[in-house]
Amino acid sequence: MSVARVAHLPAPGWACAECGEDYPCQAAREMLAAEPDRRAVAVYLAALFIDAVRELPDRPVTDLYARFFRVVRRDRLTAVRHDPWVPAGGRPR
Ligand SMILES: [Zn+2]
Question: What average pLDDT does the structure give for the chain?
């Protein structure tokens, strides 16, 4: 995995350093989703998730889990592209 080509990276506070959205932003999710080494993406996002849980104690862990790990699930990539975090029914799956 070549993380260096990902321009949208997490900044302090877990916003994207490039666009300011919560990281991983839409651009980062699309770049990570296109990465063929799914295990490397999962390890990368797991490390970020652990740091985010420590640094954002006021955010529900379930929200952070959904935020970081939806990128990994290939079967949800279509949904991610159209509706990043919440399905049409309301709550994140
Ligand atoms: Zn971004």
Answer: 79
